[in-house]
Amino acid sequence: MTTQFRLGLIVNPLAGLGGSVGLKGSDGMAEQALALGAVPMAQQRARQSLEQLLPLRDKLQIFTVAGDMGQQLCEELGFDYQLCYTPADSLTTAADTEQAAAVIAESGVDLLLFAGGDGTARNVCSVVGAKTTVLGIPAGCKIHSGVYAISPLAAGKLLAKLVAGELVSQQEAAVMDIDEGAFREGVVKARRYGEMRIPAELRYVQSVKMAGKESEELVLDDLAAYVAGLMEPDVRYVMGSGSTVAAVMAELGLDNTLLGVDVVENGQLLAKDVTAAQLLELVQNTPSKLIITLIGGQGHVFGRGNQQLSPAVIRAIGRDNILLLATKSKLQQLNGRPLLADTGDIVLDRELQGLIPVLTGYNDYVIYRLGYEDEA
Length: 376
What we know:
By secondary structure, the protein is α/β, with parallel strands linked by helices. It is built from 13 helices and 16 strands. It has helices at 30-35, 42-50, 71-77, 94-106, 118-128, 152-163, 180-184, 217-230, 243-252, 276-283, 311-317, 328-332, 346-352, and strands spanning 5-11, 60-65, 81-85, 111-116, 134-138, 170-178, 190-199, 236-239, 262-265, 268-271, 288-293, 300-302, 322-325, 340-341, 354-361, 364-370. The chain has a seven-stranded mixed β-sheet with strand order 10-9-8-11-13-15-16, sandwiched between helices. The protein has a five-stranded parallel β-sheet with strand order 3-2-1-4-5, sandwiched between helices. The longest helix is centred in the middle third of the chain and has 14 residues, at 217-230. 50% of the residues are buried.
């Protein structure tokens, strides 16, 4: 009889709720986010991972949590599962994640898979530490920790390798989180909370986000001046988050939401710190372009801290109307790894794949790959 792979599963159903409605986090904000119209996405992202395991269904048993913290997905996808913990309330809490992680780890799972953000990683780390191998499915607003796969699809592919018995190395990765209150004020204060053991497949697992402002001030000034000169009349420019785009806003003399999304038209600030719904209304049926940068060290263009750029918004703007900005040093930090799109819509992620021009200075473009070729 073949030994089954014992997989722990925890889904934080409230993860990422604050992103699309501009709250820049979900810690303690779930009820407010839901009231603003946020749609829970963690279940969908966990499903994308688990679907990669369907051909191996008879080789694994899942140890999970009642309701929408795991049980629901197991039943819908037909996995053999065992309940280990039941939350006391339908609106789950960090304590539920911690208690579930402790019980599941004690059951002796081969790997604990969890869907959430940095807060969820902190909760799991606080009770599991480096005793149990873990892997995160990115579903939160902020993903600074190195314990997450680069996308739900990547998490599923890496797990499939493990379940199939392929050799995969291990390493310890940092659990990072930021002060969400300071984050909402435009300040990033990241702190290390510990380490957890993860599968060490670098093409599937993301790097820890590199914090700090771009040091190449002269390059940024030239880049910002060039972008400002490119801007056309009667076109709406969606200005993504980050210090590189902030340099363009400074060149325009406009107030900027460093960690949010603003909209500019005819040299004026049309809308500030918009939500996904507001943004879609602004760009639909109107000539629009997106100015965006990538996260240093990780390479994510979409899906990390800019959930306001929803799949609907990106489609409304169009791939050909995306202007990607990055200094060459920022690209060199990737060591040849591709840029990444994790929009929450696998079809869109695949549509975005391919070579894309990146503006790296004054009228200076390089061609760089967005997405892995074999994920189509």
